């Protein structure tokens, strides 16, 4: 069976991008090992401070962020780093050629209940002859050269695209490598499974409320088929399910907190997941536009997200 370096070699991935991907995935294996120890390592629970999002940081948020930041900082190919857990971008090597934005531990509210979490990453190619600044990073998602995630579930899996389709790899602890287990993932255009946090319903727009109400009515409503619902509360887990068996995922705008009309972040959640979905034949939009077309205005910018089965995303946006 092929492993990650075989696939990268055969897809003529540039050497320096290969180096960034190798450092990222090897660090994720170390994060996976730390997670597997759980409370035995005394690393669950709160870190006792807040991140730029105003969210309580868990110890493993900080630990995984520092592991990735240190490893990538030392990689000569990395020009700058952005992270959910870093207030500002971190310039690395001025003559590096790649930006990497990541959510070091997406779904961290799941850690203490031993539920799925993951690391999401987004990579751009850019050079410059002075240390990178935030403005350099504000590049639309369609310019990404690679995107993916490592899912820490019953098995540790890497899902990756470098612009030529989506491949899934399973970590083999006996050989300590990622082995190719699913090639060229395709998301079915239709689905009968949706993912949304229903507790926010009263805060959604009327159009989202009517769209979701029709899914719930199933055969008794206009959709003429019944739907199932799932909510992992970790985008990485919901997206993985959609890549494996189809579905639609929504985190719409809501008026619960005027300061935070949406929850998901563009640069290191929506953009990488949007690239994966489109490479797998799916769609990823806000209410008004294709996510990969958005011109970012800030590194921690939030967006509404509707992604998954192409025809179901179209149906949702038609409301
Ligand atoms: P945390 O990383 O703070 O747990 O947030 C995870 C997340 O950003 C995304 O991965 C989930 O889809 C979404 O938030 C879950 O949001 P709710 O907690 O509102 O369900």
Automatic annotation (TrEMBL):
Domain (Fructose-1-6-bisphosphatase class I N-terminal): residue spans on this chain: 14-183
Keywords for the protein's UniProt record, in alphabetical order: Carbohydrate metabolism, Cytoplasm, Hydrolase, Magnesium, Metal-binding
Residues annotated as domain Fructose-1-6-bisphosphatase class 1 C-terminal: 187-317
The keyword Metal-binding belongs to this UniProt entry's keyword annotation: yes
EC number: 3.1.3.11
Cofactor note: Binds 2 magnesium ions per subunit.
Record-listed Mg(2+) 2 binding positions: 103, 106, 269
Record-listed substrate binding positions: 106-109, 197, 263
Protein name, entry field: Fructose-1,6-bisphosphatase class 1
Lineage of source species: Bacteria, Pseudomonadati, Pseudomonadota, Gammaproteobacteria, Oceanospirillales
